[in-house]
Every structure is written in structure tokens, then in C-alpha cells.
Amino acid sequence: MRHGKKFNHLGRTASHRAALLSNMASSLILHKRIQTTVAKAKELRKYVEPMITKSKTDSTNNRRVVFSYLQNKDAIKELFSIVSEKVANRPGGYTRIIKLGNRLGDNAEICFIELVDFNETMLAASAEKAGKTRRSRRGGAAKATEAAAPVAAPVAAEEAPSAEVVEEAPAAEVAAEEAAPEAPATEESTEEKGEDA
Length: 197
Known about the structure:
Layout: H1 14-31, E1 33-37, H2 38-55, H3 60-70, H4 73-86, E2 95-102, E3 109-115, H5 120-131, H6 139-196
Antiparallel strand pairs: 1-3, 2-3
Helix pairs in contact: 1-2, 1-4, 3-4
């Protein structure tokens, strides 16, 4: 009986399934992205993500545990040096599955499975999105005023020179006011000097 065995056996014996997942995990670590069926990718995700978590702490025991699954020295070297540095701050979710459609021969669903931190195009896109701020409901009203602004722009351009003239006149008055108080201040200082003498 198969009570409680919920994982996908992938139509293979236990040893064949273990070998398949080991090879796919090694390929994923070395190449950072592989193409496979969706069923295999979902099983591979459950298989490889605990290994990536183990690689965050580089100890002899963790290397031996991961090697018992992968049996590939190059993949171990890559995992514990390059991959573990990239995923050091990520708390989980190291892989991404991107569905591609159905295969022509047997109509199986195929997909890419990739390591999240190694896809440069998605990282660049997420960096652009991170620059945007969250919009409130009032953002629609601001867009409406911006749309109306180009119509009113020529009128504002005609009014701009008169505004400059108005600003220049007070500036001249301020300069005159600054000059006027200085003269009485000098008279007061001479009067004070005269009283002292």
C-alpha cells in the first residue's frame, strides 16, 4: 500500500528517481538554468533547495552531506563557493520555474528551472520596479491635472514675463529701503559721538 506517500514518483524506481534528481541538481548548480518538464522541476525544487540552504554554512559535515546526494565534486565546489555567496541573504526560494508551454512530441508541459539570483535580466527588471513608489488612490487625480496642464501651458508662458517684471520692481524697492536706513544710522552714530564729546 502507498498510504501517505504524496510525492511524485515520476514513474521510476526509487534508485532511478534518486539518480535522476541527483543529475538534474548537479546540472542546475553548474549551469544555473535547465529545461525540463514541470513535474520533474517541482520535484527538483524540493530536492535542491535544502542543499542550497546547507551550503550557506561551509563546514566539512555539510559538504559531505551534500556530496552524498550529488556525487559530483565540481557541483559541490560551485555550490559552496559561488552559489552560496549569492544566496547568503536570501531566506529561501532559491529557484524559479518558468513555464514554456507543451512539448511537440508527447505534449508534456515543459519549463525552465533556474537559480533566482543568477538571472541578470530579471534582476535588472526588479531593480527598476524597486525604484517606483507605491501609488495611492489620489494618483488618478494628479494624472488628470497633468493631462490638463499642457493646454494651460501657453497661457502660463505669456504670463511669465509680467511676473518677472513684478518681481524686479519690489527688488528695486528693497534695495532702496536697505540704502535709506543706513544713512540715518550713520547720522545717529555721529550724534552719539557728539554727545560723548
